[in-house]
């Protein structure tokens, strides 16, 4: 197999042209799912794919598939991501994965590579979940995680449904979501974390996704006047909640180095300067690549809550809202990514995805791998999100290698 | 001096009749300052005072003075409180102090007691500060703490000014607030705390008011995705803030038994389940009867913030918003209250007022004392606020003794 390379300038130009759709003053992108801007980005993608000789099909969820035929007509090697953004999102989150896959197609064309299996670029609908909740709708229905009818009925802030809006922008296809076999799936993405940049490593070989558990914790004490209520008589819900904020953080450190544990939200009632808080709500996010460890983390948190409730007289109601099990990726796909980085001589390391990605759902259907590239300061979901041209090229070259190896290509 | 007693049934009937003005379904009172309901309560009070033979005058702040002449025409012994309530207030907070003082006048009439000094019942305008901020407006201007023009210009939620509303309800008097000498001041009030009830004590002999200090603390860390950000790289503003919530509580306990330290409010930004908080705002309320100890408490909190900022990498901006110095009451007035409780054979204890009262401002102008009676569960600023008929009578009998002793009375 000849060592061909992608065209980094062309990839960058496509990224910048796509980023102009919904561009914000601060250099970011606001391109919410199923808006006119989403339609524009889809139209541009479709035109580029057709110019690259691909046939574009759309399923009932608006997921788009641009197919480059292989020598055989079997299940394609798919690669892609999403074109929708956060309300104050950046140029790279999602778009990079889609356009890197398109650049692979263009490169295969340039070098007249014929792969055994077809190669498809895929755009998943509403990965962000900003306008319609939950996130990863398109890949979720595709993978059988969500019901198509429920997703179509989901409503945005203005009362518009997903189904109506998808129809309105002209991307509600006929094909049932999921009736589209996949031989393998690769997704390139910015890391959205600080590890690669801080270790000056170019390629993250993603070995899987962390398991995630979400909890709600409600603390009920006794609301009282902050002046005339002596300290020993208090049942202060905020003092109890603060102990649990500390404990969640301690659990994250105790199960180092791969655990994450975060209290993201806190609400205090009645939230008045001179009233002892009678009620506090916290939400907890815990992540780890291994189910057993997640179980231990949850158990440590439950024990801490029970002990504190007994000691403080504050009632603590603990509930698990949601659990996503850890999702290891396919060994061969992971190896293909690692091998691509090795061949190109890029510094690389194994890494676990902390964030949710369409690849996590695809991994239930087909052998899956992901490629991470560094992002500036580890920052994403922010208009200042940034990645370097050379890292974008590097990740795309690794994707090219992984796709060619999996699809069986020769130049 | 003959041992005369107030009429507990008459006092209770007046309390209930007053509580009908602005009565809420849950048994409380909503009688915001300068509303039509406030006017109704003032009209009723005025009628009762005139029926009791008093001349009622009103100053520019709407403070009302009902005068029962003494043998001498010197500065009166004043007693009263406020008739306005919290939006979801109770029947006793304020109204009890006003109607107990009126009951003293009625009792002096019944027994044809002639005091040396005149006795006045006073109603202070807008003690609660719920509709117009700050609290204790009427007594504050009277004591020179606030400027009359600034108070008149203060605006409620609907844009109406204090001055216009006072005029509208017909209680903007001619007399300059403060041009009204006071020989002494007594105020009877529900405790608004749990101490008397839990110790089964009838009378709180209030020795003064706690000093109060209010602080704002802002924590600035680094907002980041809760998934891909390893624990050691985090600058979590909520984890830092939680440490300070713990520390404030610890300071309250460390300076036991008279210190109170409370974090009443907390706001977390961006307050999203899977985002490490980048910013948290806390407010702190610290109270103690001694200025030196307050100073030590503040200093302990500042040190804790400094140490935490250095250790955690989270910026901590600490600011003191407001400070009310401790206000000891006049020894003779306090003794007069204690003596009244002793003569009547009521269980009693010295107590420091944790909450703000008009008496704290009056103490700057004249010898001042306060009488606390128990309230159910220590609960006030709540529609379920409650006090027993016998405790109301007891407090009023103590007030009668204190006023007669101070005014120089004989029956």
Secondary structure elements and pairings:
Two copies of one chain form a homodimer.
Chain A lengths: L7 H12 L16 H16 L3 E4 L5 E5 L8 E6 L12 H16 L3 E2 L3 E6 L12 H6 L5 H6 L8 H7 L15 E7 L4 H4 L4 E7 L1 E10 L3 E2 L11 H18 L5 E10 L5 E2 L2 E10 L2 H22 L2 E10 L2 E2 L2 H14 L3 E6 L4 H5 L5 E6 L15 H19 L1 E2 L1
Parallel strand pairs in A: 3-5, 3-6, 6-16, 7-15
Antiparallel strand pairs in A: 1-2, 2-5, 4-17, 7-14, 7-16, 8-12, 8-13, 9-11, 10-12
Helix pairs in contact in A: 1-3, 1-12, 3-12, 8-9, 10-12
Walkthrough of the structure:
2 copies of one chain form a homodimer. Chain A contains 12 helices and 17 strands. With 411 residues, chain A is an alpha+beta fold. In chain A, strand 1 (55-58) and strand 2 form a beta hairpin. In chain A, strands 1, 2, 3, 5, 6, 7, 14, 15 and 16 form a 9-stranded mixed sheet that branches. In chain A, strands 10-12-8-13 form a 4-stranded antiparallel sheet, with helices on one face. Chain A has helices spanning 8-19, 36-51, 95-110, 137-142, 148-153, 162-168, 195-198, 237-254, 291-312, 331-344, 358-362, 389-407, and strands spanning 55-58, 64-68, 77-82, 114-115, 119-124, 184-190, 203-209, 211-220, 224-225, 260-269, 275-276, 279-288, 315-324, 327-328, 348-353, 368-373, 409-410. The first copy, chain A, has 2 domains: 8-209 and 326-410, 3-Layer(aba) Sandwich (Aminopeptidase), CATH 3.40.630.10; 211-324, Alpha-Beta Plaits (2-Layer Sandwich). The first copy, chain A, starts with 7 loop residues before the first helix and ends with a strand. The mean pLDDT of chain A is 95. In chain A, 35% of the residues lie in helices and 24% in strands. The radius of gyration of chain A is 23 Å and the shape is elongated. Chains A and B meet through strand 9, helix 8, strand 10, strand 11 and strand 12 of A and strand 9, helix 8, strand 10, strand 11 and strand 12 of B.
